[in-house]
Each structure stands twice: as structure tokens, then as C-alpha cells.
Specification:
The chain is built from 15 helices and two strands. By secondary structure, the chain is mainly α.
Amino acid sequence: MLGLELKPEDRPHSIKEFLELLDSPIGQNYLDGKREQKNINQLRVNSSPESDIGIRVFSINELAKYKDKANNAIPDLINYLKEKDGIIFGAAESTLSQIGSAAPLLAKVMNDKNESVEIRRRTANIVWRIGAENNAAVPELIEAVGDADPVISWCAIVTIGKIGLEARDAIPALIKKLGAKETEIRAYSAYALGRIGQDAQEAIPDLLKLINGNELDAVILASLEALKAIGYDIKEIKFSRDGKETSGEEYVIFAREEQRNKQKEENKPDIRISWNVFRTMDTPPQIKSEWSEQAIYAGQKLEWVKRG
């Protein structure tokens, strides 16, 4: 009730004082909140299976505008993910991805082995899109990292990378995934360890194994940048490329320069590897403060490296 949130001495003690409070910014915010909640409740009713499909889709999409204020609609929306109609579960996916407070419940569904793999993948996809707001669901994300399904595992790993240091408890699970058979999982496990930073120093030996092994460029690049983010001097790492010796630092500079040049050709202004490329193996830059300036230097000094 309006006024109860105030200190006893500030609460209205007459109808006149109550009306004055109602007309104040506090009162207006209270009324706005009541109106919003009324709208949300009506949208929940309209989104139910008893409504026409057009009304349902409109109502589900409208709930997204209220974001976390619509958290009482989360159980309904999660149930809509389980419907067969792609229009309905697609609308529910879109709306849930904009409600950060949905993350813990979604993460539980993602790990629920009683649900079908299809439903678990749908929830994993939303968890990944919610991103760093999943910090309340770190235990569930760690469990999902070890999932046998590569889609669920990748989504959890990328989400941990977005959270960063607050997900430090995921370090052992991420180290284990450096040995996964899927390239995108190895690359993003390295990336996530780098995002956690110096707390992940125990991962250094395993990251070095990736670099020294027969790995794809995407995994090597992610591992090098992770090592630097963790605190390892990658200038001491040596590569032989096109008959010439180069350091880990130069490898990163050149690889990011190549990406930047490619994106310039595609009329993209900068290196922006989107989180929204599903199951990509290409990780965003971790050394943002350095590669952008040093790339010019690399273009002048590393002429011996063949360009694509």
C-alpha cells in the first residue's frame, strides 16, 4: 500500500495528506507500477492457450517490454517453450531472453534430464542470449558445461565467458573442456578462462598444450589471448610460420589484423565477432587495448607472413 514504504513519521495521517502523497512523484511512481502490473497480468491471461494464436503471440511479445517487471510471467513463458507451434515458442524465446531474472529457472530446465534435448537446447539458447545477467545461475551453468550435448555445453561456456570473474568456480570444468572434440567448445573454454583472468592460472599448462598441439587457428588465437589475460607472457611463446619465427604476441596481432582487414572489405568498421553467431568457434578479442593500435605495426613488420 502507498505510504507503507515511508518512515512512520513521513506517512500520511489524514485523507488530505494521503491525496498530497498520491499527487507527489512517489505517488505517481506507485500508480505507474500498479498500472504496469495490471497490464502484465492481462497480457498473461491473453497469452494463455485459451486465447486466439494471434492474440497470444502479440501478448507474449508485449511482455518483453516490461523486462524484469514481468518476472511473474516467467513460469508461463517457460511452459510456452514446450509447445509444438514454432510461432509460440519462438515468441517465448524472444521475450525470455529479455528478462534477466529468468536465468535461474531457465538454467534448471536446461539441466533437467527429464526434459527432451530439444527443450533443453531451447532454454540453453536463451540462457546464452541473456548473457552476463546469468550470474545468479553460475552453479547451474557449471553443471551444464559438462553436459554431453555439445549445444548445451557451448551455450553454458559462452555464458560463463560473458559473466567472467564471478564465474571463477567454473575453472575446473572449463579446463576439462579444453580437451573436447568440438573445436568451438575448445576455443570458447579458452576464452572463458581468459575472461575469468588471473584466478585461472591453473589453466596455463593446459592452454599451452593446445598451442603446442596440432590445433586450428581459432583455438590457438583464443588460447594465446586467454594466456595473456591470465597473466602469462605470450611474447616468450615461439611459432614457426611460413619459415619464419614469430612470437605469440605477433601471432595475435596479425590474426586480429587479418580479421579487421576482412571486415573492412565487407564494409564493417571494426573487429566485432558477435556473441550471436550460434556455435561459432571465433572468439571476440581479449586484448582490446593493444591489438587495435599494434595492428598497424604488424602490417609494417610482418610482411613475411602470407596474407589471405
